[in-house]
Amino acid sequence: QVQLVESGGGLAQAGGSLRLSCAASGGIFSRYVMAWFRQAPGKEREFVSAITQQSGTTYYGDSVRGRFAVSRNNAGNTVYLQMNSLKPEDTAVYYCAANIVFRTSEDYPYWGQGTQVTVSS
Predict the structure, then answer these.
(1) How many angstroms separate the CA atoms of 14 and 29, rounded?
(2) For residue 71, how far is the Cα from the chain centroid?
(3) What is the pLDDT of residue 55?
């Protein structure tokens, strides 16, 4: 059983940056594709980014490509999401998730509790 805990959310101004972290425990971290999703009020959960087990490949949703960067530290069991050039529409609860294979759908067996990101204009 993998446990995931996100941190690093908060309030940022438009154009600013935040860095989210997701710490994993209870499993072999390097076996898992790690993904980030987000959910804004009244909207469906949206794929943001993912990174494969050995960081060989990264994926991004269209709305964040070129502004966000995902990375991971397998020795530290942590995945990161660097968010730059933030926009008010990036406001959402951000979740990390883990799966053995890459998916852009919500088909991930393990999820964190989420961290709130609020971007003011």
Answers:
(1) 33
(2) 10
(3) 79
The type of residue at 43 is K
Q: What digits encode the pLDDT tens for the residues 34-86?
A: 999 999 999 999 999 999 998 789 999 999 999 999 999 999 999 999 999 99
**CA–CA gap between residue 107 and residue 89 (Å, rounded):** 24
- What does residue 63 show for φ and ψ, rounded to 5 degrees? -75, -15
Strands 18-25 and 92-99: unpaired
> What is the Cα–Cα distance from 82 to 17, expressed in whole angstroms?
7
Here the tokens at position 56 are 């060989």
Q: What phi, psi does 29 have (nearest 5°)? A: -55, -40
What backbone torsions phi and psi does residue 42 show, to the nearest 5 degrees?
75, 5
